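Today's session is about reading a structure prediction critically. Students often jump straight to the picture, but the first step is always the sequence itself: look for stretches that repeat, for charged clusters, for runs of hydrophobic residues. Only then move on to the predicted structure, which in these notes is written as discrete structure tokens rather than atom positions. Here is the chain we will use throughout the hour.
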Amino acid sequence: MSEHTVTAFDDDLKFITRKVVEMGGHAESMIARAIAALVKGDKALAEAIVAEDLVLDSLQYELDERIIVILAKRQPVATDLREIIGAMRMGNDLERIGDMGKNIARRTKEIDDIVHPRKVVRGLEHLTNLTLEQLKEVLDAYVNKDVQKANEVCDRDDEIDQIYTSLFRELLTYMMEDPRNITFCTHLLFCAKNIERIGDHATNIAETVIYMVTGKSAISTHGTRAE
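Below is the predicted structure for this chain, in token form.
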């Protein structure tokens, strides 16, 4: 392989990494702002987030198109092939995370201007903060090819599941105590489930990082992939 070809291939791989990180940053921003819009009842912000999902879709399209060209022209093998296919998988997970942000924003637009039970809102914010931390950690693991950090992300998924279950029970209690809470708490239940699913997608990305670096599947150890 000529030096020119090697350099061009390195540029391709760098493009892929940049695009995945860009998608990750955009998805992270969408989730954080969607929860902020929900807590504040900011319907204008919610509307903007719904529109921003198209940006993430466009980034995924650019990533997939570049990967298709690379596969056709370079015919990579071994580690390089795992890195490229792994990036495509991660792009899909990040696009799905953006969809979760869009779903939360849409629910924010439907919620009436009522007083929110502060305790459950704090619970949702806590769940979101933990999940976004997982997303940041796994993107760092991807950039640095850090298998240990990727494994730590997988191992912490149970904590998110436990907090989600606790919040679910608390929301049901509020609904039973006062029927006026039913509509708002139902919306919050769906939002909390979306956040929990983001944790699953972060775990998917961590498993992909492990596979990219080691060539071994982490799914058998940490569970099945989120869809």
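Discussion point for the tutorial: Residues 123 and 167 are 6 Å apart (CA to CA).
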